[in-house]
Amino acid sequence: MNKHPCTPPAPGDNIAALLTPALVVDLDAMQRNLQRMADFARQHRLRLRPHAKMHKCAAIAKLQIAAGAVGVCVQKLSEAEALAAAGITDLFISNEVIDPAKLTRVAELAGRVTLAIAVDSKLGVERLALAMQSAGSQIDVFVEVDVGQGRCGVAPTAAGALAQQVVAHASAGLRFAGLQAYHGRAQHLRSAAEREAAIHHAASLARAAQATVTAAGIHCPLVTGAGTGSFTFEAASGLWGELQAGSYLFMDRDYAENQPAPGAPVFEQALFIKSQVISRGEAHAVVDAGHKTYAIDSGLPTVWQRSDLTVTNGGDEHGILHPAPHASADVLPQLGDIVWLVPGHCDPTVNLHDHLVAVRGGLSDGVVETVWAVDARGCVS
Amino acid sequence: MNKHPCTPPAPGDNIAALLTPALVVDLDAMQRNLQRMADFARQHRLRLRPHAKMHKCAAIAKLQIAAGAVGVCVQKLSEAEALAAAGITDLFISNEVIDPAKLTRVAELAGRVTLAIAVDSKLGVERLALAMQSAGSQIDVFVEVDVGQGRCGVAPTAAGALAQQVVAHASAGLRFAGLQAYHGRAQHLRSAAEREAAIHHAASLARAAQATVTAAGIHCPLVTGAGTGSFTFEAASGLWGELQAGSYLFMDRDYAENQPAPGAPVFEQALFIKSQVISRGEAHAVVDAGHKTYAIDSGLPTVWQRSDLTVTNGGDEHGILHPAPHASADVLPQLGDIVWLVPGHCDPTVNLHDHLVAVRGGLSDGVVETVWAVDARGCVS
């Protein structure tokens, strides 16, 4: 339905030729990030199932799987369908689906790929079982536990009863796969000690949940969760068997502001917005990228490697640059200059774009190596 | 490049069948808004050129034009190209373009449609003239004046000199069309008196700019600008000849919080997110719509006609509902219930979606009348 008049860039184009604003991936940095996380998971004998809600791109998911990931997570059914249509065969919808019409599609999808889903209610399990009953296929079911996020998930004490419910529907194709235990709010606590404490608490809640499952006579095969801000702590806990981090691949301003965790792999910024100065005042410059180009739910972007410039909100289509408090107006870029921005939050920024331009050789003189479709862009249902 | 697996709804579908989350337009409300603004412009003998950056949809632009609008504004070249490709023939890019490669496309587009553009620099005029020179067509050029927004636009004292520059390039096809004078920051000052004062000040700056144009011996055909929060004041000024309001058609939570201006037409909320409760806690409910479904640059959504519920940020794909301070937990919707949200800001919310589902007969029992493509979704370049 989308009718973009702009021809996307082609492999071989110089980075200088990219029209602004453009969402650009530094391929060299991304591949180092990819390898560092794959190495970390391998060294810690943990499964890695990166969250594809970040990139929504089957080509990138395939690179992650080729490097050792067991599959990917998604957050929505339509995301799973889009990635399955593009060739991804092992998907975990790490979220609840309650609509019978959608659950029918979940069951259909479970017949085509290895599929898992999260549940946190008796109604959800019953409806899932009803949908699966007639499909004749199997689905892995994770009971989601609220381990501090305060969003979805049952209380730890209720996990065993819900696992029993799942097991009771084994004949419908439901296979109890373990616990979904993700603490989203822990990811951006700025000090490593705060994040460690939050995951320590999450682990105690997940262990309590696991105990109720065991007490119900059910084997709990796996605890899955963790994000880019906290995964070293989940890994150290001995409890989680699978890591779901996603942002590590591209990174963003928000994660860059975290104090690194001791011993954590270093991830480089790999996602950028190429923008251009389209207006200059005496004490400010205006670039052609606003919050229709980068998401600002986690704050504004920064200018890459330019601490002498600050960005303020210029609306949907503009960003306004000022000299930082210690800098003079001389540092402002001139009319027509290119300005590289680091988005505040990678996931919803990628979701604004139809493609990712992957560049080899850096931002100043790189060449487009490939253009990736954001296959599941806008797939919110 | 977009491969949505979800079949969009079809005309005739009942609103109950729409999968969540869905972006829904109440057609009855929208058409009343459309008519009220058209009537206002007609009664005040003003040109109406609604800003299509809000809906990015050619079908809606055609309805506006059929009701009397002279054409539409857009904010980006690629938006203009997308709407031109879908049949819109009178477009104003109310923004600066400085890249020669884009200006070549501006010139090409000017050969296919009636096109106008804004400028605020000598370099911009020179590059535009260079691009137009070889195209052999004409373009209307508005000198943008900063009337309080602090973003793009020349100082009022510099308008005459830039208009002279435009006129000097008449042989290249540049036609000085007047002044672009839009005060974005005035739109959401909450009291009508504050907005009136801001536009009063903007008018004094625009008049000063106009005087420098006249002093340069140049006729200033038109002052164009105004938004949904302020247009009654621009209309009353006797200075502006064209109104660019866009949000009036759909409205949003942010505009609803404005104190109405005296004598202003009343615009109804016409844009909604249909969402569903996918998880329930003892004291909160979680819906399946987060900030990948609605933009939060102007704050969170509210629940339509439910002042007993509050919405907090649940991340990319979740919204969290709590009882309002005066309400009990009994008011929370149940698992599976439908919840209608009013987005904080209509423009970037529409830009997240590939289509708008237009429903006749209200939210409780309406029927899909049409599904509109968001033709220029993601067109940021």
UniProtKB/TrEMBL annotation, chains A, B:
<dbReference type="InterPro" id="IPR029066">
    <property type="entry name" value="PLP-binding_barrel"/>
</dbReference>
<dbReference type="Pfam" id="PF01168">
    <property type="entry name" value="Ala_racemase_N"/>
</dbReference>
<feature type="domain" description="D-serine dehydratase-like">
    <location>
        <begin position="270"/>
        <end position="360"/>
    </location>
</feature>
<dbReference type="InterPro" id="IPR042208">
    <property type="entry name" value="D-ser_dehydrat-like_sf"/>
</dbReference>
<dbReference type="InterPro" id="IPR051466">
    <property type="entry name" value="D-amino_acid_metab_enzyme"/>
</dbReference>
<comment type="similarity">
    <text>Belongs to the DSD1 family.</text>
</comment>
<protein>
    <submittedName>
        <fullName>DSD1 family PLP-dependent enzyme</fullName>
    </submittedName>
</protein>
<dbReference type="Pfam" id="PF14031">
    <property type="entry name" value="D-ser_dehydrat"/>
</dbReference>
<keyword id="KW-0456">Lyase</keyword>
<dbReference type="InterPro" id="IPR001608">
    <property type="entry name" value="Ala_racemase_N"/>
</dbReference>
<dbReference type="InterPro" id="IPR026956">
    <property type="entry name" value="D-ser_dehydrat-like_dom"/>
</dbReference>
